[in-house]
Amino acid sequence: MAFDKKFNECSRLVQILLLLIPIVNWVTEILVRVSAFIRKPSLKTTLGLIFGVILGVGLGWLDLIWVLLFNHLCLA
Fold first, then answer.
1. 21-71: pLDDT as tens digits
2. Are residues 7 and 64 in contact, defined by beta-carbon separation less than 8 angstroms?
3. How many CA atoms lie within 13 A of 39 on its CB side?
4. Within 13 A of 38's CA, how many CA atoms are on the CB side?
5. Nearest-CA neighbor of 59 among 19, 17, 13, 4?
6. Is 56 helix (H, G, I), strand (E, B) or coil?
7. Which of 10, 54, 58, 72 is most buried, judging by how many CB atoms fall within 10 Å of its CB?
8. Other Cβ atoms within 10 Å of 74 Cβ, number
9. pTM higher than the cut 0.85
10. What distance in Å separates the CA atoms of residue 57 and residue 26, rounded to the nearest whole number?
């Protein structure tokens, strides 16, 4: 299932809520990044997946700001 496409199709309010709650934030990050990597493996999605796993919630807070500005996750 393409979680990255479903995440981008959600309303901005839902995206912000998913990225605002710390544990839900990390799970959402992992699901979206794994989905993006499987759908389109590239250096960008690989780095996003690696940083998402290693940095966890910290990258989620960065992605919250990124979603507010650009309406998609960084490196996904």
1. 888 998 988 898 899 899 989 999 899 888 888 888 788 888 889 889 998
2. no
3. 13
4. 11
5. 19
6. coil
7. 72
8. 17
9. no
10. 5
